[in-house]
Predict the structure.
Amino acid sequence: MSQLTEQIHASDIGDILENSLNGYSPNQDDCLRLLRSDDTFLMGITAGHLTRKKFGNKASFVNNIILNYTNVCITDCKFCAFYRPPEHDESYTLTLDEIEARVKTGWDMFKIRQVLIQGGHNPDLGIEYYEDSFRMIRTKFPQVGVHGLSTSEIDMISKVEKTSTKEVLSRLKDAGLQSVPGAGAEILTDSVKEIISPKKIKSDEWLRIMNEAFSLGLQASATMMYGHVESDNDIAEHFSKIIELQKKTNGFMAFIPWSFEPNNTLMQNNGTVTYGAGGIQLLKMIAISRIVLDGLIDHIQSSWLTNGVGMAQLALQYGADDFGGTLIGEEVVSCTGSRSTELTDKRIIDSIKQIGYSVEERDNFYNPVCAH
């Protein structure tokens, strides 16, 4: 430990790491210094210590499916390889029967505890489509949590219905929505959004809709998509906005940093981003997330989906405590062709045990279901 103390003292970010170990949270300037430092290993040791202090040598995961209910979208995000415009030959929207069949298969085969529902911004879908889907899932599969719809999808429904986003959230909650994924945040600075998703909701709208969800008693995840056109300042601002809202509401259950996968996207085609951010950057982002959010947001996910299982194992030692979900049926990242985007629970359990950790299966709200 004395050698580690010496390393921390000698580091250009030693004061931040020492303060963090003593329970003092970094400010936005400190966050910027962490982002600009190359001491990823020391950040990882610090973040890993904070995580083990809270959770021990244990990691959780959720058995879930992703229900990408439609790929029809009019938002044309440059980072997305999944969407298709209306009337396209490859466009689709699942029927209620198809949704039921997928959830039933997930329950029968895997005893899933969560269905993560995300799709495109489809102008032909009214709110009843979502209400019927959520109500059916909660009625027929009561042990399966409904974790659904990004803030931008909620905004789209409000435009279709010509009503407020809060009214949409209220109706969806009554129909069975339990928590909201963090998608649509990307980076919460409009200068970045203007480049990568100019037709999507702005940063303040993402924060406002999340705040509305919290006011109705819904909980959520927060995400950050890095590795494209953002600067260190943009990332620090993103963290700052998440922290500010969390201090007011305590509504975020988890934070998930994930790297942009450029394959088959407009951003790769036009030369804006030619390759992904890579493993070192993932570990750095995981570690900084834990250090910056410690004491505010309990759970940091490993982000295996865009970085693979091996990197997720390392992420669990760099500040993540949750592996994430099995993601059976995922179609968005798989459209980039980057890697297999499904894991069985056995693969996750084995991967966690390989690094000497115990495994806890959880539900939608991070409550333990069973140990493995």
